[in-house]
Amino acid sequence: MPDGTVTPFEEVRQCVLDRRWSTPIWFPNRRYTKSLQDAMSELAKCSASFKSTELIFTTCYLTIANFVSGIGRDEDSQARQFAIVMTHGYESDDEPVLTFASSFHTLETR
Amino acid sequence: MSVPGIDLGPDTAILATTWLLAAGVTLSTCEWLALRREFRSGGMYDWNIISVVHERNRKSALAMRLIGNYPVFLAVLILRLAAAVGLFLLPTYTTSLLLGVLLVSHALLHFRCVYGLEGADQMHFLVTAALWVDSLFQDPSVRDYSLGFIALQGCLSYFVAGVAKLFGPLWRDGTAIGHILNTRSFGARWVASFFSRRPNFGCAATYGVLAFELLFPLTLVLPTSAALGILALGVLFHVVNAFVMGLNLFVWSFVATYPAVLYLGCRINAAVFQQDA
């Protein structure tokens, strides 16, 4: 925000498959979700082997950053940060684990 | 070559495989077309981002500069859809051309989409390639080799997947299916809850999947009626996966190998019985 405050993280629903009665036959969103998941898996691997200055130019990082920057935002927001968090599934009370946190990236002014 | 009650000659096996492939590719291409906005700037497959990979490779950069263009790639997808539908509708002398279009479009799709492709796409590609070779030569021995390749590819895919699972501790202790269906990527809350309350059911499902994948190649040597039983289990396996895990395209791509598996099994059985006699 312009005053320097950082708003809380919001969970991105597109990472989770949205099932409908038609999904056994027709499921185009599975491609979309899988693409995002593939990029996240690759980013997890790359983050261990790339320097942070190199990491931001990898396809996986740019794909996720591009996706995150396209999500609706507050009029006043100046920059965006994303994080990848691993959960333990539906039937678990364990706390999610942070696997990656990006730097802040300035958003284009509207 | 015939199976009791089923006239499964090589031509029938090729035709059944072609139709199953055409159905799968039609569905897959329609799904890509439904996501067409994602190929534009700002989308999941934004060329400005995907091209980063190809810029490192000068050869693919040249080819992909053209395909990266959104209207051109949209035309490729529409052509792919037309070729897949054409396999049902057009005369057989056009088959090699249509399969050639599918092969090229698959290669372009592979370059254009770095993420989001899956095992079903790989199987579609391999089956298409084998059918294309068959359609080029129109020769009985080439037809046998093409069907043999598809059959062995199908058996190998299951068997390798089964062997890979054997290395996973969760598969060995019988909890893998419960864990997979508990994830938000492949499971659903109701399925996770069901398996959580019935661990024995999850254990049976885990070992059942392992046994099915490891024993699938036996379809090539078992009597035809037993082979048909395993193939029916395979169809059920993929249909359940489509319902529970959302893997709808695997039904078409993997089942497309079944006519060839059945055909090769009949050939092997016939050869063995002939030798015994």
Description of the structure:
The complex is a heterodimer of chains A (110) and B (277). Helices cover 34% and strands 12% of the residues of chain A. Chain A contains three helices and four strands. Chain A has helices at 28-49, 52-55, 59-69; strands at residues 79-80, 83-86, 97-101, 105-106. Chain A has a two-stranded antiparallel sheet with strand order 1-4. In chain A, strands 2-3 form a two-stranded antiparallel ribbon. The radius of gyration of chain A is 16 Å and the shape is globular. Chain B has 277 residues and is an all-alpha fold. Chain B has helices at 10-34, 47-55, 58-67, 70-89, 95-112, 119-137, 140-166, 169-172, 176-182, 189-197, 199-215, 224-244, 248-255, 258-276. In chain B, α12 (224-244) runs antiparallel to α14 (258-276). The longest helix of chain B is centred in the middle third of the chain and has 27 residues, at 140-166. The radius of gyration of chain B is 21 Å and the shape is flat. The chains are: A alpha+beta (110), B mainly alpha (277). The A-B interface holds A 15-17, 19, 23-28, 30-39, 42, 57-60, 62-63, 66-67, 70, 87, 89-92 and B 27, 30-32, 34-35, 38, 42, 44-46, 49-50, 52-53, 113-116, 118, 179, 182-189, 192-193, 196, 239, 242-243, 246-248.
